[in-house]
Design a protein that fits this description.
Layout lengths: L3 E12 L2 E7 L15 E5 L8 E5 L9 E7 L3 H7 L6 E8 L11 E7 L4 H12 L6 E7 L8 H10 L3 E7 L11 E2 L4 H7 L6 E8 H14 L6 E6 L1
Parallel strand pairs: 7-8, 7-11, 8-9, 9-10, 11-12
Antiparallel strand pairs: 1-2, 1-6, 2-5, 3-4, 3-6
């Protein structure tokens, strides 16, 4: 599919270093931009053709509104440039792609682990599941360096309060001793994963984030007994 012109309809500051952009899709191409939870969209800036292109996970659930959300962290050349875009900015985009999609496994538990900005596709997962409540258990484990970098923590906490099938555990890895954060500290380890994985043979495991993080999570899931074919990953770096 060719590049399609889209427009930034809204910019939301999610953390001190992360902004969520609501992208408006032309009505004539709405069907082309239909997506599954977990897919990504590729964008580039026609005003700066030398800056290249970048793929971003879609962090909104499919909703038929002709929009989709992406979250951009202020890092890297492209990310820094995108982070500064304002409402009304025109971009070019290609239709959603990707195989890191929410598993269609109605009889299985779902366990998701996200490191840093790797949490973004799971907002799409959770939003979709809230509209289509599962009969099994869903766990989301979110790892962040510090508490102020938890993207969507408020939304996930609200979902956990509202949905008896959903458990959310945020954990920080680099908080100072005097940090007011009162939640869990430390990496997502085997003990935490064992608490989330009731039956390795009846669990679909999703890991997203930096390559080192994802590799560690997959190795831990394997040690617990989750079969390789039941593990899905999205990573970078």
């Amino acid at each position: 599919m060719d590049w399609i012109e889209i427009e930034i309809g809204e910019v939301v500051q999610e953390t001190p270093i992360d902004r969520r952009f609501v992208l408006r899709i032309p009505a004539a191409h709405a069907a082309d931009f239909a997506f599954e939870p977990g897919q990504f969209v590729t964008v580039r800036d026609p005003a700066h053709p030398d800056s290249g292109q970048r793929a971003y996970s879609i962090c909104s659930a499919p909703n038929g509104t002709g929009t989709l959300d992406v979250t951009v962290r202020d890092m890297g050349n492209f990310g820094h440039e995108f982070y500064g875009y304002e409402t009304g900015t025109k971009l070019l985009a290609k239709a959603p792609q990707g195989r890191f999609v929410l598993a269609n496994a109605p009889d299985d538990d779902i366990v998701m682990v996200g490191g840093g900005s790797g949490i973004t596709p799971f907002r799409s997962y959770v939003g979709h599941l809230r509209s289509n409540p599962p009969e099994t258990r869903v766990w989301l484990l979110q790892s962040s360096r510090t508490a102020d970098q938890f993207i969507f923590r408020g939304e996930f906490e609200e979902a956990a309060d509202a949905c008896d099938w959903f458990t959310y555990v945020p954990t920080v890895t680099r908080a100072e001793d005097d940090d007011p954060w009162t939640g869990r500290r430390g990496r997502i380890d085997e003990a935490l994963l064992r608490g989330a994985i009731r039956d390795p043979e009846k669990t679909v495991f999703h890991a997203c984030g930096p390559g080192v993080f994802v590799k560690e999570m997959l190795a831990t899931a394997a040690a617990i007994g989750v079969p390789k074919e039941r593990c899905k990953k999205e990573q970078w770096g």
